[in-house]
Design goal:
The chain is mostly helical. It contains seven helices and no strands. It has a domain of about 80 residues. The radius of gyration is 30 Å and the shape is globular. Its main location: membrane.
Length: about 230
């Protein structure tokens, strides 16, 4: 499209084709910018960055506070909220886009699976790098981080194998779903176990402090009672 010269017929053809989104970007390039790549490429790139900015503002104003409120109400740790609420919010667009690619006219199985792989690569590389540059320095728990990265690599390897074979069987689909259930269960088990150990280790210390204070207060109380008897 970018290499075609501007013609009225090309502009009319692009306008006649209904745009799948709110804005017909092909019409912007072919008609508004008269198919000039020197104008359309930087302008459309800036428009893409503006869309990312809108998405970040909307997520910061609505999505993140809602997830934080739900996590606090449900008493979920950050890891537990990340693999459930955040994963659902971040993965829902990818799921719908892949389903549309697979079930659309003609079906595009490789495109649907490639969209999932590319989205994972984008999040793992660009998003992690950008967040690290903006929010650094911050501490990352080594155990949970290693667990998440390892299981992510296992899931990505399985998906890559399915992509190369260009077919997926029922047992593979069920296995991927069960793998995610196992991942969520492992996160809950590790976080709840760590919380239980923290509570158990805090109880003896609290009991010891209470007994120490009682032992220190006992002689003072006895001496105070003796002084009251002598006075009376």
């Amino acid at each position: 499209m970018a290499s075609l010269p501007y013609t009225a017929a090309a502009c009319a053809s692009v306008r006649a084709d209904p745009a799948p989104g709110l804005l017909n970007y092909a019409a912007v390039h072919s008609c508004l910018l008269r198919a000039d790549r020197r104008l359309s490429l930087p302008i459309l790139a800036l428009l893409l960055l503006l869309h990312f900015r809108f998405l970040a503002v909307a997520a910061g104003a609505h999505f993140s506070p809602a997830v934080s409120r739900l996590a606090s109400r449900l008493r979920l740790s950050p890891s537990m909220a990340a693999v459930t609420l955040l994963a659902l919010g971040n993965g829902a667009p990818d799921a719908f886009a892949s389903a549309a690619a697979l079930r659309g006219e003609g079906g595009l199985p490789r495109a649907g699976l490639a969209a999932i792989l590319s989205a994972g690569a984008f999040v793992s590389a660009f998003v992690v790098g950008a967040v690290s540059l903006i929010a650094a320095p911050f501490a990352v728990p080594p155990a949970s981080f290693t667990r998440d990265v390892f299981l992510y690599l296992v899931a990505a390897s399985a998906l890559f194998y399915i992509y190369l074979s260009a077919e997926i069987f029922l047992w593979q689909a069920v296995g991927l779903v069960l793998f995610y259930v196992f991942f969520v269960g492992l996160v809950f088990y590790m976080d709840l176990g760590a919380a239980g150990k923290a509570v158990s280790s805090a109880e003896p210390e609290t009991t010891a402090n209470g007994m120490g204070r009682a032992a220190m207060d006992l002689p003072v109380s006895v001496e105070h009672q003796k002084q009251r008897k002598v006075t009376h």
